[in-house]
Model the fold of this input.
Amino acid sequence: MIKTFLVQAFFIPSESMQPTLKVGDRVLVEKVSFLLGSAGQGDVVVFARNVFGKKRPDLPWYRDVQNYVRELLGLPTGSEEDYIKRVVGTGGDVISYEGSPRELTVNGEKIEEPYIRWSQDRSSSTITTNNCKRYELQVADDGCRVPAGTVFVLGDNRNNSADSRSIGPVEEDKIVGRAFVVIWPLGNFGGL
Done:
């Protein structure tokens, strides 16, 4: 019940959220706020993408038990990929990410991003009116409009992140919850 509706642990498998999260960190993700509302700009969220498409393979019962225990410990199960990224735009927002160093603007306002690896990004993919369609976004006057019912997410390590620039906007109903604390290793314990 707790894992299904309230809080779940997740394992960080990649460097895409450095320096905020490191490989091997385990975070707790709260699910309650998504029952009452939706993701907001700046939230660090976990979402799932099925590796096997819409239908999962039929596994023997002992593999189901093994996957359940792995999920409880925040470890990957192999039946789906969990991604953790930062929300930079929600449905209806107009976003752009350009310049050198890159600057994120949302609805015409520059967003300060002190969490970006090395404090600035000079070379990762841009988000401009020229490439909106590639990211499955609508062209808007000053950038790209995020479709209703979706969020646009980026990793904090912008040069090493499979985020909405490669997988497109994330449907809100695919969001598992909002990460709020690192619980392991103890040396990294703290809020997000």
